[in-house]
Amino acid sequence: MGIRKVATTKALDLVKAGEDALERLKLDGYFSLKTGLGSKSDKTTSIDFFHTPRFVNEVTVNMLYSGDALAGRIIDSIVDDGMSKGWSLQFSTVAEDGGIEPLDPIEAAQLNATIETWEKRVGLVPEINKHWKRGRAHGGGLLMLGVDDGVEDKAEPLREGGTFDWLRTFTRWEVTASHERGEDPKDPFTFGKPIEYRLDPNDLSDGLNQESIHATRVIRYEGVQVADNISGQNVVSIGDTFGDSIFERVWNPLKNWNSALQGAGHIIQDFAQAVYSVEGFRAILRAKGGMAALLNQFNVMNQFRSMFNATVVDASDTYERKTTSVAGMPDLIDKFGHQLSAASGMPLTRLIGLSPGGFGTGEAEQDNWNTIVGSEQQAELKPLLERIYSVLFDTDEFRGKIPEGGWKIVFTPLKPKSEKEQAEIQKSQAETDTLNIASGVVTQDEVAASRFGKGGFSLDTQVDLQSREEMEAAEGDVEGEITDANKAVATAAGADVAKTAMNGAQIVGLIDIVKAVGLKELPRDSAISIIQVGYQLTEEEATAIIGANTGEGFNEADAEAKAEEEATKQAEQLAAVNEGTPEEEPVDDGDGEEEPEEKPQPEEE
Asked: Which of 8, 303, 381, 586 has its CA 20 to 30 A from that of 22?
């Protein structure tokens, strides 16, 4: 029994030891009992992440923006580059066939000029620039639309009409959002957001202090998006539901970068130290007046260095300068720069003006930056502009002036294509168009109108489906009339239709005659007579093939002039052929006299 009890105790101890080991394991990854990998003894298992939000307040943001060059550049660069090339409004109108086509260039230019005058009057560009920058720095804000719609209480929704007179930017710290949220999912301005805001601006000169503003009269800048539960907490803590400041994410990398540069500055201050070796240094310090004598000696040495650029020491003393090693420091500072670049989303070439290393030209970094700026234009700037112009076009000044076909905002490319690149694009498109025309996908007229229409060269191909349907219907009518004529001839002859039907060549001949009549190259009466004689048809059948009104208004003088013009053109071509023929060479026919060799003459038409 004693042996069994000991064995049982050992077994329980092993089980307990195994349970303790499993408890220490991190069971969602690799682990090893021998090395401690994944257990509590593994230092990496204790790594966690914790972030205390809202360290950035209004005072901190203002000091960072005005006092730190890189912090200011992180805020300004993407806004300035996003607005540097500007944008344009492209208008469309409804065509007669019901389709949408670009507005006439002259009318579009006049309309854009009127809009540009309004933009300058209200200061649109600088106010948007300020609104975007402050929103990025402070983590949100409002752009108030100064529309006089005849409503005294600005807590009421915005109405159509009136005048659009000004714009005003407020940071998140200057507004307090109401706790009431919109519940209508079809309302993009209030659904899930505050219905109104109370203004508490820093500048009280415009009389907007403590005024309530409805959500339809402002445009929100959300800041960096945060989780809904964090955003919801803000309603209780600071009275809004905005996001984060850009500085929330870049604070630690920015702090590390500046600390590394300051540390490097301190090292440079102590980069080289002078070292004096004085014989009997301790004895001199113990002797009465020794310290004063030693300091006097050092002062004399420094005076000699300053006056004579030489260091004078006793034969038993030594003097040398020792430098502090900075090996590896440049690479270390660069790593902090890369971290800041990744956090801010800006390449180093744009963030600190660093030239690309190696064989790089910086073009790839610039293209990457342009992509980032372009995405910000679409995500932030475009919705803001669309809201502003939508409100503007509903005012009395522009009501009825905007074409029914609609409008859209187009940003000028940040990197315009060179003439060579543009030529290569047009050449490639021309080759594609040639293949599409040859295969019948598009017509020449459709390609010409699409590439070189009202709006200038375009890569968009517009297919006129309505014209195609009308053409197919007309061709079907002609073929149907010819088929009916074949049947009529066969019936009149009392023969089988299949045996007496016209062949392909006869049908093509009839189509050519109909076309000639339609183009007024052949008189209608003459065409009917030709069909009667050539195809053995009655006058009624021939008339049915030509059509009821085809060829009406035929002018014989015009036809003769056209025929004469064609004859003149053929004569000119014949003369050009003769001018290009080499001179006649003499030919000996055996009678002792050379005769010119006859050259073949073109056949007379």
From this structure: 8
